[in-house]
Amino acid sequence: MPPVFAAPGPDACPVHVIASDSFDSWLPGQPQRVQVWAKAQGFTGACGQALTVPDADGRIAMALAGYGSAAQRARRRFVLAEAAQKLPAGTYRIASGLPAEDAASESLGWLLAAYRFDRYKDANGVTAALQAPEEVDAAAVESLAAAECLTRDLINTPAADMGPAELQAAAESLAREFGAEASVILGADLLEQNFPLIHTVGRASDRAPRLIDLRWGNSGPRLTLVGKGVCFDTGGLNIKPGNSMALMKKDMGGAANVLGLARMVMAAGLKLQLRVLIPAVENAVSGAAFRPGDVLMSRKGLTVENNNTDAEGRLVLADALALAAEDAPDLLISMATLTGAARVAVGPDLSPFYTDHDGDAAALAASAARTADPVWRMPFHDPYETMIEPGIADLDNAPAGGFAGSITAALFLRRFAGETRYMHFDIYGWTPSDAPGRSKGGALQGARALFAALPDMLEL
Q: C or N: which end of the chain has fewer Cβ atoms within 10 Å?
């Protein structure tokens, strides 16, 4: 179950959030025993510090949480989550010191500090439960936490238990929860209904490829989300080395992220028409696998010279984007764990995105700062278009040379979005090591920032 706020009650332990530059002014106003105890324990208000202060009978009377300096906070996400992970089990309330503008994101971080992936073993830990601060919309923050936990759970699940059928089941479960409609085009029907690239990439697996289509809402602007659902990626005949294959259960991270974003949208009841498209496949190796050098037909009618079977994500997305563009949505967004080049460019924490719309980029940058969900704009650099144009087909899915790999992948996808207002995210979908509020494993990236920006982007 996703973490939620503790029920209001009089017995919650008060937490005083103390910045390092305000500790010296805060401490003299406290009882002598508090002053002595805080100094004896070395509490200074530094980021991540947590201290419980006993009363005269030895029971916990209050807790102190370090909030550091502005410079320290700028280098961290979810500052209070680190303190929450150090406090003993119990129920807490914020008594003072937390800036109102930080309350929502820090409360979310506190909730996410309690996340555990416990499908395969008992992963229960000590939990410091938080009552929702008065200035926070508790239901809205809990909804964000639920979306994050959904995405993390989907990505963290090994491919043996999260193939195309299981990803379909997750989308259908979400549809039932919010009264959405879900349909699926499966196996050979993909060819009959003109989704040749999705079928080609998935045909080598005994787990049938499919296109999942979820729809919700009947009024307002039309928003379509497309998520890469490669449930495991061997690399195909251009097979990956073992080390590169180890994390490929996360190659459906784009699908998991758009489902998390869709959950936020539906839970909030945004006045828009939502469509979610997920091409769900397994890129396997067998006699039926597609080959390097094959020229493939796409739904849009563009031919693609396949120069690397490990560049399959853009192929399945291409057919889904072409379908999305036929519906002429007001905004089309794709999310995918697409290229290693993006990781080299910005590392695992930032979510690189592409758009030709300056207003959308500005709205997203502003919301990312508010939501502790960092993003970074990358260029659709038109002069690189020639790099994705081979000699014998319309497009090349893996240009030679290795330069600008994330940009050329984004340009490839833009060809299938056509004239639609389009934004693409090349995410990592994974937290490589434990951090406060962000446990090692699957990650929601860019989706909270997008959710917060949608009212401005779509004039809701």
A: N
